[in-house]
Fold this sequence. Notes:
Radius of gyration: 22 Å
Number of domains: 1
Largest sheet: 3 strands, antiparallel
Strand order of the largest sheet: 5-6-9
Shape: rod-shaped
Number of helices: 0
Distance between the termini: 49 Å
Structural class: mainly beta
Strand content: over 45%
Order of helices and strands: EEEEEEEEE
Helix content: under 10%
Amino acid sequence: MALATDDQGDPATATLFRNVGATSVSVLSFPLSLPSYDIVNLRVGVRGEGWEGALFVNNLGDERARLAIDRERGLRARYGFLTNPPRTYGATVRKEF
Length: 97
């Protein structure tokens, strides 16, 4: 597990604004440990004289990896996690001229 770091104080807690709605808590806490992940990419192709074609799948298992903590205004607004792109697939064709 990776430990998220912060340059604006303790990233694990944030004091919430007071007198805004009917809140039942005054401090927001969340974990700093980011889970490990594995990403698998696959590419299969063929080559001929002067051409090449391939099929590919990136993020084969559609893993939703948490890469970093995403904060707005130093945790005074929303927080979330930056994630990797979802599964993508496609084809490439190349021709030499």
